[in-house]
């Protein structure tokens, strides 16, 4: 896709109060308020991206733009940050709705269960009930997606894509064996170290470091999260990661079986978070499912250099469904 074409695609940034926590939402396309839009031109479907951990929605902007263009700019593509992973700039207004759940209603909102309820709260307060959905979960976002289908089966989800899905045995994976002691046993050491190193650091230096790192990882865009090095956000990402290692153990076969017809799993061949054997196991248990193994050596963090390839796969898979809209 031509780079100039990507830049022409409108992306609207909002910070909203969701479950009592400020949350970044990036909306690709001209539609910014589906809930109150009663016009005949309102789209019938929303493509909703749920990120991995850390849950910085800005990292997924190039992917969202590619997907929006490949679906002929007919449907909005939105991505949401995880609760506590993005802070609004001081000059940015935070939108609230009268129906927003307060913080007490979502217990442990920065943890695994709270993050799932956080996404459901957003859909409940910002997306009409009659809106059809395509859910795209990446990494732990795949686990969230399955749980959302399980907890609210009345969601009008026509397809769900689980990309490089960390939905089982996370602590047993190659990366999990390294991350588990760090996130579960030495988490407070990481907190203190991060706070002591980053809190005194001048904002200009932090911004310079962040921009340089994002450039190297091919993640810089107009919404680059300059609070990536904010101790509060890093602590919440580590806290969520620790719960992932401890709680994402057994694959939820019951939910997979119930929703198998709308699920597409996309595993990597070089993924240290969900190795190839996890693909082989689920493929054996659900031979009739749409369970794919990437043949292009795309890494787990596909958003660094492979947005177009993954967007192409999803757009091709959606052609028949979207042609009926």
UniProtKB/TrEMBL annotation:
- InterPro entries per the record? AB_hydrolase_fold (IPR029058), LDAH (IPR019363)
Q: Which UniProt keywords apply?
A: Endoplasmic reticulum, Hydrolase, Lipid droplet
User: One GO cellular component from the entry?
Assistant: endoplasmic reticulum
Q: Give the EC number(s) listed in the UniProt record.
A: 3.1.1.13
Q: Which reaction does it catalyse?
A: a cholesterol ester + H2O = cholesterol + a fatty acid + H(+)
Q: Name one GO biological process term.
A: intracellular triglyceride homeostasis
Give the GO molecular function terms.
sterol ester esterase activity
Q: Which domain of life does the UniProt lineage start with? A: Eukaryota
List localization entries. Answer: Endoplasmic reticulum; Lipid droplet
The record's similarity note reads: Belongs to the AB hydrolase superfamily. LDAH family.
Please give the PANTHER family that the UniProt record associates with this protein: LIPASE, LIPID DROPLET-ASSOCIATED HYDROLASE
What's the name of the protein? Lipid droplet-associated hydrolase
State the organism of origin.
Macaca nemestrina (Pig-tailed macaque)
* Gene that produces this protein: LDAH
């Amino acid at each position: 896709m031509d780079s100039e074409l990507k830049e022409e695609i409108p992306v609207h940034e909002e910070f909203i109060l969701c479950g009592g926590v400020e949350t970044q939402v990036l909306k690709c396309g001209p539609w910014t308020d589906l809930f109150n839009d009663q016009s005949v031109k309102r789209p019938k479907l929303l493509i909703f991206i749920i990120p991995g951990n850390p849950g910085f929605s800005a990292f997924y902007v190039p992917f969202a733009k590619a997907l929006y263009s490949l679906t002929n700019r007919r449907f909005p593509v939105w991505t949401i940050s995880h609760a506590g992973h993005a802070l609004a700039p001081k000059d940015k207004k935070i939108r609230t709705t009268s129906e927003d759940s307060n913080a007490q209603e979502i217990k442990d909102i920065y943890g695994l269960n709270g993050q799932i309820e956080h996404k459901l709260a957003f859909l409940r307060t910002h997306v009409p009930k009659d809106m059809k959905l395509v859910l795209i979960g990446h990494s732990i976002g795949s686990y969230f997606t399955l749980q959302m289908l399980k907890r609210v089966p009345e969601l009008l989800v026509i397809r769900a894509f689980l990309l490089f899905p960390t939905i089982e045995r996370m602590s047993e994976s190659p990366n999990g064996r390294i991350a588990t002691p760090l996130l579960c046993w030495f988490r407070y050491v990481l907190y203190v170290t991060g706070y002591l190193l980053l809190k005194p650091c001048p904002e200009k230096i932090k911004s310079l470091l962040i921009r340089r790192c994002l450039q190297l990882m091919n993640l810089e865009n107009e919404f680059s999260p300059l609070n990536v090095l904010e101790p509060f956000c890093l602590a919440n990402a580590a806290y969520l990661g620790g719960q992932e290692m401890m709680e994402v153990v057994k694959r939820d076969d019951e939910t997979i079986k119930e929703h198998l017809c709308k699920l597409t799993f996309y595993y990597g061949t070089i993924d240290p978070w969900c190795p190839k054997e996890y693909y082989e196991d689920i493929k054996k248990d659900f031979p009739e499912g749409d369970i794919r193994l990437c043949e292009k050596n795309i890494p787990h963090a596909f958003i660094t250099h492979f947005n177009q390839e993954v967007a192409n796969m999803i757009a091709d898979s959606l052609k028949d469904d979207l042609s009926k809209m």
